[in-house]
Amino acid sequence: MTGPSSQSSHLLINHAPILAISTIAMILLPYLPIADSRMCVAAEESNYICTDDAVAALKASRKGNGSDEMFMQRGVPQRVDGNEVEREAVRHVLRQMEEYFQNEVLSKPDYESVRGRCKNMNELCAFWASVGECETNRGFMLTNCAASCRLCLLLHTNLN
């Protein structure tokens, strides 16, 4: 009788290619671009928290508040208040800020030296940016609101 149950067979697997691929992957892993998951969530009606910690963002959006660690990635939480037009303008600045961080600050090597310093130091940074202060009061805004103004690359210059 012939068949799978009547024959004793041995399967030889050459592990060398698998081991080589695993070794290469482990060496290259730190250098591979990883999709960034930074996001802003509305923690309260007039506050956004921007973070790369999805769990913390989810907790903040459910509780209506969050811890200091959650918004330190972009600085202090931003106030989103005023009339509907003003609130939408601030939200627009926050969306632009997050796109800027994802597409520029966190992905391009030019920003490496300023990533940890590019923050909003005042709760009104996004509002001020929405009314044009990044252009009219550039020195102050660079020092205090570089994230909202999307001026991170200038933090190493003498403009601040």
TrEMBL record:
Keywords: Membrane, Transmembrane, Transmembrane helix. The keyword Magnesium does not apply. It comes from the Eukaryota. Coiled coil: none annotated. Signal peptide: none annotated. InterPro entries: ShKT_dom (IPR003582). PROSITE patterns: SHKT. Residues 118-152 form the ShKT domain. The chain crosses the membrane at residues 12-32. This is ShKT domain-containing protein. It comes from Helicotheca tamesis.
